[in-house]
Amino acid sequence: MRDFICPNCGQHLAFENSVCLSCGSKLGFSLDAMAFLVIAKGEESEHGGAVDANEYQLCANLHAAQCNWLVHVEPVRQLCTSCALTRTRPSDADAPAMAAFATAEAAKRRLIVELVDLKLPIVGRGEDPNYGLAFDLLSSEFEKVFTGHEDGVITLDLAEGDDVHREQLRIAMAEPYRTLLGHFRHEIGHYYYYRLVGAAPKYQEQARALFGNAEADYQAALDRHYSEGAPPGWEKNYVSSYATMHPAEDWAETFAHYLHIRDTLDTAAAFSFAPASATFERRNLGPSGFDSIIEMWLPLSWALNMVNRSMGHDDLYPFVLPAKVLEKMRFIHTVIDEVTSDPAKLAAAASPA
């Protein structure tokens, strides 16, 4: 994530700002510009860091989801690119669920920015009714909700936004890490297996060699995992115990960690405690690109873990990346690099089934 600046006064901004706390300017995030722009009228809207309030306003989810993204002024207030991907959400009358919904949408906006930075195709349900991306953000207070992915639809239990609930689950499942953003990154990994690998025989063969048969019986694998647990010595080949459950979950877990690493490096570079070459603007291209990313990541993650311990917190990144995991992650990096660098491959990945 970048270090955002108010165009009017130069004050540093958080990704969640809609007002500059220094000069009072009304702000909106522009996905196209990857920057905050001032929403102004008249002559004040004529400089490069501003947009005309007669043409732009904040997303229709400004209050429901605390969304601060810019949209064009229309007769009916529009949803932004991120919010428009949400297919189902709680009723406005369900105040607790709506508070959790806002928390989930904030995490989703971070995800969408990273996907755009990586130039990954985001194909919604409107373009691809059968396999387009959509989010069902549901409350499990009165009915069972299973977080997961199916045919492009990502379902999230909004209870995951509650710190106590999430921590209880993390401990019960012996997980070192559990966050809303982590859930989104994992589930979007399933979506991109379909988009990037599913229609490319070359990638399918390579993925099968690294991760295993993604078509293997999922229910049988799930039952085995929860009855027997991860196999002994799993740490040598997998990024997490959950990744051992099924090849599709191994891919999704590894994909999520790739996103963790890229975004954290990008943020660290924006604040000058990682090399500038870590940013998305300076793509690490070619076979050596992944090596550069990992060479920057390993000392940074170690340092951040030590900083967290100095504050009495658990490690920021409580994971080990053995050689086999790095090999899998390198494959994901290569697929993303090759597909997003080739217009024909990118068009194929973005096309409806």
UniProtKB/TrEMBL annotation:
Residues 4-92 form the Zinc-ribbon domain. Coiled coil: none annotated. InterPro entries: UCP012641, Zinc-ribbon_6_bact. This is Zinc-binding metallopeptidase. The lineage of its organism: Bacteria, Bacillati, Actinomycetota, Actinomycetes, Mycobacteriales.
